[in-house]
């Protein structure tokens, strides 16, 4: 088999099926990454969403029989909405990060990888693959970096010269020995814009993230949001784009190459108040196809309450007060108490005093008492 010729054919075919960048890498163990992952674990800097078995993460041979190479792909997503919706007083809106716009990227990239698998099988029937996007064992960024898709920026993102960092990543391990591509040189230079702009100091140093402080992570947790971070959240409902929007490599970057990735304004910038009392069915209807709905409605609703406090949206007081009195979930009642206190005023104080009378959950009582104290 002429693998150089096949590699060329794969590259050509990848363009036809809407893969924006493709690269080839060896399937050797990722030794540098192993030390990094162990160090991150030691420091308690991991999010908990990563694959737990570090050995599997860094050695393709542990998850695939005799791997010979890895094919990495990248698909560019839009950074601007064509028809943006705007929030106004009384009708405030939250925001989902760009990586959640349009159809869930796992579905889109798996489709491309599956087409690629079929194409390669039609040329080499004995070809074997293991494709993955995000949820697989491998570190997608480490694979992309090795395959020359982009460099690992100080903001931790893989930055491509063509599409900036607004790319999704995926890969397939194969038993075919493709010639590897060369990694790109890191172009960050002396720039530190992402480190300076991160609202929580989650970027400990260039290329190192304390995920526990990262807003992208915090928006996905289901418990109470630690108080320290609530005011940093702004109107973010899911994810955070700050360290990418400030990046000079993303200046003017806005690709609309995939119809599936076009955002629906009402879904990615939804009105906040209706979210607070949304049913599961309504939530699924409005957000179900987006990757940002994977943790369910609870974190999004909690974040919506925090966003209403950020806007000091007095007109939202009735909705928040209703949640404080009636929501069966303590996280919602407690967060409502915090938001009500932040919005402030006599109505807010009365509602908190009333709720204190009948609340039984210690954490919620604490939130209510803190709120009352702040309003004195
Ligand atoms: C867990 C996870 C998160 C966590 C933790 C993120 C993190 N930085 O570790 C949270 C929830 C915070 C998160 C947030 C985001 N995520 Co995320 N996430 C993942 C996931 C599942 C695992 C990441 C992981 O293993 N992290 C551990 C760290 C240590 O490794 P890494 O950053 O992935 O890899 C690099 C470093 O290890 C570095 N490295 C290794 N050794 C050394 C040594 C030194 C000295 C240095 C400097 C660096 C270094 O090199 C590796 C490759 O470049 C991947 C999918 C996957 N299976 O890989 C997606 C993934 C990384 N996420 C992605 C995206 C889009 C995001 C967000 C932009 C979403 C958003 N807008 O909110 C943010 C970005 C936050 C940020 N600044 O990193 C994309 C990245 C696309 C890209 N262009 O890079 C991925 C690849 C999903 C995908 N398939 O497209 N994510
Ligand atoms: S995603 Fe937001 S919080 Fe996380 S490192 Fe980037 S700027 Fe900081
Ligand atoms: S903002 Fe500057 S330092 Fe950060 S990733 Fe972009 S180029 Fe690199």
UniProtKB/TrEMBL annotation:
InterPro entries: 4Fe4S_Fe-S-bd, 4Fe4S_Fe_S_CS, ARM-like, ARM-type_fold, PBS_lyase_HEAT, QueG, QueG_DUF1730. [4Fe-4S] cluster 2 binds at residues 198, 214, 240, 243. Binds 2 [4Fe-4S] clusters per monomer. GO terms for molecular function: epoxyqueuosine reductase activity. It catalyses: epoxyqueuosine(34) in tRNA + AH2 = queuosine(34) in tRNA + A + H2O. It comes from the Bacteria. Pfam families: Fer4_16, HEAT_2, QueG_DUF1730. Keywords: 4Fe-4S, Cobalamin, Cobalt, Cytoplasm, Iron, Iron-sulfur, Metal-binding, Oxidoreductase, Queuosine biosynthesis, tRNA processing. It is found in: Cytoplasm. Residues 176-208 form the 4Fe-4S ferredoxin-type domain. Its cofactor is cob(II)alamin; [4Fe-4S] cluster. [4Fe-4S] cluster 1 binds at residues 188, 191, 194, 247. Pathway: tRNA modification; tRNA-queuosine biosynthesis. It is an enzyme of class 1 (oxidoreductase). Monomer. Belongs to the QueG family. This is Epoxyqueuosine reductase. It comes from Bacillus lumedeiriae.
